[in-house]
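From the shared-data thread, chain only:
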Amino acid sequence: MPTVRDPRPLTGEPLALDLLNTRWNREGTVQDLLVDTEGLAVWLASNGLADRHPAGPEALRHLREAREAISAAVDGSPARAAPLVDAVLAHGRIRARLTADGPAEEPEFADPSWGPAWLAARDYLDLLTRGPERIRGCAGGGCILHFFDTSRNGTRRWCSMAACGNRAKASRHYARSKES
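Structure, as tokens:
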């Protein structure tokens, strides 16, 4: 099977936010990578999960459920979203083990098709532990992407300086030059 390039404008964010970024705006139209199992396969491959998690219809359904739960938590009310995220997390657990290399933790799933969804929901919890105030939506007008702000002073505003940041600066420059 040939490798398909990931069409999304922003990749490489932590897993939970990368899942949210499977929806993006292109020229005013919302695109969705998770419309079919081919898009799921692209997302799994982009996140290094393709070898352990097959891109089947059940995994796609579960991943969409996780995306809605995480979106509700990030963009809405975390209190109302908690049962949605918890419902995804109910399908897996962390198993502590002692290995030859020392202590280890690994996820376990009763149904492996829940694996990617559970990992994304678990990653959201990790982001909340690391810095909930650094989970952000892009400030670019019309942009629906999310990122985890890793800047030193925590002031990142755009998903990408090259795209949304540049548009915002160009717009401000145009407004200033028009006033002159």
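The radius of gyration is 18 Å.
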